[in-house]
Amino acid sequence: MAIKLVVFDMAGTTVKDEDYVGKAFQEAMRKYGYHASIEEINPLMGYKKTVAISMMLRKLEPIKEKITDELIEAIHDAFVAAMLNFYSTSDKIEALPYAEETFQKLRVKGIKVALNTGFSKDIANVIIDRLKWRDKIDVLVASDEVENGRPSPDMIRKIMKQLALHDPKEVAKVGDTEVDINEGKNVGCLYSIGVTTGAFTEEELQPYEPTHIINRIDEVINIVA
Fold this sequence. Notes:
By secondary structure, the protein is an alpha/beta fold.
């Protein structure tokens, strides 16, 4: 069956991330007295960020009654503020190599290009605008636009609905984390592709059984075409 849509993750997959996201997350946690290493944080970065905060608090806070919705929201607000400031002002924001070329080649072949992300929509919009990607993609969906973030199929299903696609076997998902791979599998995508440009190495991706593991984003073209 022909692929009609490729859904890409953002940070670590199509957008350069040298632990910028993990460090902002780390600082937001630290502001409220919780200390975690980047090595502990990075594997959670594909999740909806409120979920990632909850997961980290369950690991770090021995008194579970202290883990309230208000605490999670406060930490998330600090994270969002840091990310908005970074992506609005930093000269380090850039596309990963071959990302824009890959978008273009897929669309020339008649394949739709979508982005989804564990970020909230306000952060995702800043990134898209800074990179001037509005005309380079077809759809953007963020984790706060659906009831459940990754690895739930909600974001990809929303994208498919917007593009009037009904069969997940016409869809490929590409991302750099465990939850990207499991998101694609939970939707039923024909391909759920792991890429080593972000949080996980090839060896770390293998246990999640992606259909493919790639080292360059443009390798997607030969897989789906």
